[in-house]
Amino acid sequence: MKRIVVLGAGYAGLRAAKELVNLKAEAEIILINKNDYHYESTQLHEVAVGTKNPNDITFKIRDIISPKIKFIQDEVTKIDRSHKKVVLKNSEAVSYDFLVNALGFESETFGIKGAEEFGLAIVDVKSALIAKKHLEDTLARYASSQDENDLHIIVCGAGFTSIEYLGELVHRLPELIKRFDLPKDKIKIYCIEAGSKVLPMLDDHLAEYAVNYLKSHGVELYTATKITELTKNSVISDDKVYEANTIIWTVGVKGSHVMAESGYDQKRNRLLVNTDLSSPDDPNEFVIGDVSAVPGPSGRPYPTTGQISIAQADAAAENIIAKLKGQATKSFSYKSLGTVCSLGPSNGVAELSMMGHWKVKGHLAAPLKRIVNDRSVLELSNFTTMLSSK
Ligand code: NAD
C-alpha cells in the first residue's frame, strides 16, 4: 500500500489529511506535527493580548482526526527529498510515496537588527503567551519602577496581525488600567508602518475607519516610517527613536525554515508550485499553505491566509487521489470569500465577495470574521466536525 505523509497540522495539513480520508484514499495516511494540538492562528492575537486562553483556540489533534490517520508527534528537521524521507528530531525518519508539505509560517525579521532578540512575535501559542506575559509584567512593574517606558507599547507594522492586535489591546486596556492601577494619561501605544497606508490590502475607506477607530482609542499611528533597528527599549526608524518596554513584532511572516534547510528553491521559505500545487522537483509532493506560493490570475502569488490554505488542501487531496487512480491532476483555482479584520471582539472592517461585493464596517463586521472562517475553515459546521473525517 502507498504511503501519504502530511507535514503540519495547521489549517492546510489537517484539512488535507481529513480530505484524504473523506475521499477514501487507498493508502496509509500519516500526519506529523510538532505539538499534539492544532491552534487557530487567526485568533493568536487574542491570546497575545490576554482576552483568550490557549484552551479557547486549541484542539487536541487525536480528538479531531479519524482513527484511519496515524499521528506522529515530532518535529520535522529536514525533508530528504532524494530519498523520499522525512527526518524527525526525536524518532526515526519516515519514508513516503506522496508528501503533503504544509509546514506553515514563522516570524520574518527581514534581517533587521534586534528584531529577533527584542521583538515579541505572535506566530504560535508559545510566542503569543510570551507576548502576553511580557505585556502584563511590564505594566505591573510600573508601580515600582515609575519608568514611563513600562507604559509604552509599540506595535511594528500595520498589516492584519498588527491591527487586530491593536484592536484587541485597546479593548482590554481599561481592565489592565484598573488591575494595575495605571495612570491612563501616561500610557502610549504606537503603531509604526513602513508603507504609506495602514492595512494596504483593504479598501481605502475601510482602512480609514480602522485608523480612526484606533486613533479614537489613543493609538498613535506612524506611516512611511521604516523600522531599521530594535533595542531592548526602543524602535529606531530612519529619523526617530520611539521608546517602549513592550515591542510587538508583527511585520510579516515567512514559511518554515525547514524549506531552506531541505534545499528547496525558495523565496522567504515559500516554494513556487506548479498549477496543480505539486513541487517542480517532484510530481508526488504537494506544497500547500504558508510554505507555498501559488500564482494568481495576475501572475503574482495569492496572499497566504487560512482560507486559501483550506482550498489548497482540498485541491491537493483530490490530486493525490487522482494520481493513485492513474488519472490526470487538476489546476488549482481559487476565489476568496473576502477578508475581515477585527477591531476587538465587537468591531471590525470587512470586504466580502459572497453574493456580490460588500464593504462592512463597525459592529456588523465583528461576527463576519467568524462567518468567513466558518465558510472557509468550518464549512458551516463546527470546528471538530470540519477537521474530523466523515
Ligand atoms: P503583513 O505582511 O500583512 O503586514 C506587515 C506590515 O508590516 C506591512 O504593512 C509592511 O509594510 C510592514 N513592515 C514590514 N517591514 C517593516 C519595517 N521594517 N518597518 C515598518 N513596517 C514594516 O503581515 P501580517 O500582518 O503578519 O500577516 C501575515 C499574513 O497573514 C498575511 O498574508 C495576512 O494577510 C494574513 N493575516 C490575515 C488576517 C485576516 O485575514 N484577518 C489576520 C492576520 C494575518
From TrEMBL:
<comment type="similarity">
    <text>Belongs to the NADH dehydrogenase family.</text>
</comment>
<dbReference type="InterPro" id="IPR023753">
    <property type="entry name" value="FAD/NAD-binding_dom"/>
</dbReference>
<dbReference type="InterPro" id="IPR051169">
    <property type="entry name" value="NADH-Q_oxidoreductase"/>
</dbReference>
<dbReference type="Pfam" id="PF07992">
    <property type="entry name" value="Pyr_redox_2"/>
</dbReference>
<protein>
    <submittedName>
        <fullName>NAD(P)/FAD-dependent oxidoreductase</fullName>
    </submittedName>
</protein>
<keyword id="KW-0285">Flavoprotein</keyword>
<dbReference type="InterPro" id="IPR036188">
    <property type="entry name" value="FAD/NAD-bd_sf"/>
</dbReference>
<feature type="domain" description="FAD/NAD(P)-binding">
    <location>
        <begin position="3"/>
        <end position="302"/>
    </location>
</feature>
<keyword id="KW-0560">Oxidoreductase</keyword>
<keyword id="KW-0274">FAD</keyword>
